[in-house]
UniProtKB/TrEMBL annotation:
Gene3D superfamilies: Ribonuclease Inhibitor. This is Leucine rich repeat-like protein. It comes from the Eukaryota.
Amino acid sequence: VCLCEGLGNMTLFDKAQALKFPKFVEINFDHCSDLEELPGSICSLTSLERLSVTNCHLIQKLPDDLGRLRSLRLLRLSACPSLSMLPPSICRLQQLKFLDISLCMSLKDLPMEFDQLPKLKMLDMNECSGLKMLPKALAKLRSLKRVICDEHTEQQWLAIKASAMPNLTVDVVEERFNLDWLDD
């Protein structure tokens, strides 16, 4: 679903419809201009392996039952600046290997149970300026190999790397989007 309007008031799937599509493996929502919330019925698609929600500027919330997507390996939530929290159930995604929360400036914190993501290998959290403190549980992510962050969280990641994860690669990306030119 790309460059769409009209999803804001639409139910994507009810449980009966989800059962008709039992082998969905990928869904992409990109530039859905009026999507404020993913429908909870998407969590019935338990064979889903890849879910991308990108450039959906009004999305504020993810379904509380997101953890039911037990086959999910990739979760991309990039450029959703109004997304203010990740549901705690995200920590039940036992197959998750890649999480992208880049450009989600309204995220204030990560769930404390992040150490329950045993297969997470890569975390992209570049330009998440709302995140001030990282949970200590991140140091327990033994599968985590690479983090992409910005200068706001760089020191915290380097401290985690030094104390508990010497093989972790921390890539610091310079700020891409800046509105300072508006002050001129």
